[in-house]
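Protein modeling request. Please complete all fields; requests missing the sequence field cannot be processed.
Requester role: graduate student
Desired output: 3D structure, token encoding
Chains: 1
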Amino acid sequence: MPPIFLVDMTELDKFIDIFGGSFSAYGQTRKTDEFDDRGKHKTKSFIIKQPPTIKMFEEHLEGKDPALGIIPINEQNKCRWACIDIDLYNGFDHKALIEKIKENNFPLIVCRSKSGGAHVFLFSKEFLPAALFRSKLNDMAAILGYSRAEIFPKQNQVDMTRGGTGSFLNLPYHNKEMTVRYAVKEDGTAMTLQEFFDVYDKVALTDLEKLEIIDKKSKKVDDLLKGAPPCLVALAKQGIPNGQRNNAIYNFGVYCKKRYTDWQIKIFKYNDEYCKPPMDKSEIDGVIKSIDGKDYQYKCKDEPMHLSVMLKNVYYKNMV
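Delivered output (320 residues):
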């Protein structure tokens, strides 16, 4: 008797093709008998060192627990997808995030996570080095304002011959017909699985040329902030939060003074480039006066320069 599939085989094949990763292991997150302060079951995540099967993908789409977690980095240290894991829950605005992605022309798909945060995916139709994926997503995350978000895969390289596995991410569309883990449309509503496939076909990379816009944005920042501390470069990529332009432009002023002899003039270029809207001339004159002395150091502990914590995430994390 032939096997009975509750999930359409065409959909299943497409889903497996999109979210293929490691063949050496997979992940699961299971409920425990313990409860947290909110009265919800605590969970325990673990990796099983066995190949994920077609049946597991099928049961994931059917909604059987536990949901399937896939390790994106494969045995050749390549992947076809990577993800920015935005671990924010209460009232997260997926629609606003999508608008910002659209403004930057990034080839990303936003999915709602189980807890209401966001998994922001970058897809490729061919396997590319994991280091490349991580580098590009780190830049995109910074530009979108989520420099502290985790990037999957978490590693550039994993030695699976010595028992390494990499880190897994729970896949979207668990219980595809009534899922809370869905791709999000521009209007903030849920995509069906087929709608997700359609969008994937439009944005998944066929080559590296589609990432040129990321390179141009990064190169522009690198040219303007050559030799600047990484936290200042990260701030430039992320953008300056509202109400924090004074502290930000102070640090740009310190950088200009260290780099240029005519720094009092150059600081206005950085004001125009990174402050939206730019600060008034009288305000800039005040900043110039405040650092026109002997003691001029970066205020790394003040917001928004309190980004030194982000260094490992934005720059050094992808060197591990």
